[in-house]
Amino acid sequence: MPIQVILVPAGAEYQAVMRGLKAVPHAPPVVAVPAGPMAFRAFLKTWKDRSRFANQEILLMGLGGSLSPRHSAGDAILLEQVWDAAGGGSLQDYFCDRALTDSLAQRLKVPIGTGVTCDRIITTVTEKWQLGDRYQADVVDMESAVLLAVMPEAKVTILRVISDDCGHDLPDIAGAIGPDGNLQPVVLALSFLKNPLAAATFIRGSLRGLKALEQAARALW
Question: What is the pLDDT of residue 170?
Fold first, then answer.
């Protein structure tokens, strides 16, 4: 598989991908990146290997939220188009490398769809349906459009694994990721305590998504 580098949000997602690749000989380097558009953009601007991979094949992979009843926790999807809803300016969409995306879709036997990048975690069913309708999108994340905007010459393909479906509200964790891209554990814990049933659903979906992310990483080679 002609992937030169894999970018994964730091933390549990990075650890899942590393578990999936540990038995894979000659796997490409895996780089842990900060979550969220602001922190990820800042990382890419100062990334020491940015020029090295400026026109190379890059795989961004991690978890995402479903915006469609067709996709539930644990389902993987490759993105062909990503809308930027995090910039706050004029509406912009970006496209992944089609040949590379098609090749991965055939190898992993997963669907290809549309994503939208937001500046926070989307927690309510209502907002998920609104995003899905407005952008005709399948999945929401916080990094994809940033990579496509900052590295336009790279051959980018994006794999997202669903961690939460569009039929259940999440706990109010929109502020659980700080401006630096790091998880705020106190904010997360308090939100879980306020809504334990939603928290239990979220945790189950996240664990299912992380397991599927590990399996997807292993299946790439």
Answer: 81
Backbone angles phi, psi at 107, to 5 degrees: -70, -45
> What is the C-alpha radius of gyration for the chain, rounded to an integer number of angstroms?
16
The whole-number pLDDT of residue 189 equals 72
pLDDT beneath 50, residues of the chain: none
- At 1 the pLDDT is 64
Whether the model clears a pTM of 0.85, i.e. scores above it, the answer is yes
Q: Write the CA distances from 200 to 74, 153, 208, integer angstroms.
A: 16, 41, 12
Q: Could you tell me the two tokens for 54?
A: 């400026």
CB neighbours of residue 161 within 10 Å: 28
Residue whose token pair is 């999108």: 137
Q: What is the set of domains in the chain, with CATH numbers? A: 5-169+207-219 (3.40.50.1580)
Name 112's Cβ contacts closer than 8 Å, sequence gap at least 6.
Answer: 77, 78, 79, 80, 101, 102, 105
